[in-house]
Write a structure and sequence with these properties.
Largest sheet: 2 strands, antiparallel
Strand order of the largest sheet: 1-2
Structural class: alpha+beta
Strand content: 5-15%
Shape: elongated
Length: about 90
Amino acid sequence: MTSRDARRRRIVELVGRNRIDSQEQLLDLLAAESITTTQATLSRDLRSLGVVKGADGYEVLFDGTDERAVWKTLGRSLAGLVEHVAVGGTMVV
């Protein structure tokens, strides 16, 4: 049995060093290192760690310690790309 913190550290390392396209692939990589977990737990870990899936597979967006700084940086990055924002119900266009 691996501790939650150790498992999460290893997830960040694996995502940083490998192209991972699915949670199943990540579960297999963890299992190869004798780290067993469920898909539901892995999903929660990914969300908590700020791991997101993009065109190039999973990547760490932030390390979970300073989420506000990440959103501020993301906002500055997007500011140069967005010309207009319109809100309609639950959608933002």
